[in-house]
């Protein structure tokens, strides 16, 4: 059983799993020593996080209510500092500071890293702390090599407790502008080639539209 499973599968969750007949048999028992140590990020996880241009982070406030926020930036703005630590430059936003305020009383966080185009989702539990840029210039420099534009106010560090991958069953296909750029470029080339071919046909005295109508009539 992984550390993620130990944290996520509470007694109540396990009872529901048993009632619904979905409790996996290979998760082990909570009484075992398995899952006590944090799950280290492997090559797959490091590459996946390094390619993301955004993630969702959940915190819990003093009222007990959860709060979910989206953090975005250029691909790779979340840096995998080692197999147990993530860091990024947190820039000034709407200045509500709900996430950062929640972390003052409870450092536990849950993160979702999404790849809508590839239909993959990485779930992660961690404990977050924040550092001021002036207090750790070396760390700040390392996470600012790729970062969101704006004034850096703090550097959140997330100590990974556990992670798990989701199946793609209900993840919709969505694409970013960067992911669509090659398709748009190819479409532009095809449109240019088509325009050139039509121009050549006209130079030969042929009507491209008439030829197309004839092809349709033959079908």
Automatic annotation (TrEMBL):
It comes from the Bacteria. The keyword RNA-binding does not apply. Residues 180-207 form a coiled coil. InterPro entries: Pyridox_Oxase_N, Split_barrel_FMN-bd. This is Pyridoxamine 5'-phosphate oxidase N-terminal domain-containing protein. Keywords: Coiled coil. Residues 43-135 form the Pyridoxamine 5'-phosphate oxidase N-terminal domain. Pfam families: PNPOx_N. SUPFAM superfamilies: FMN-binding split barrel. It comes from Actinopolyspora xinjiangensis. Residues 16-36 are annotated as: Disordered. The keyword Coiled coil applies.
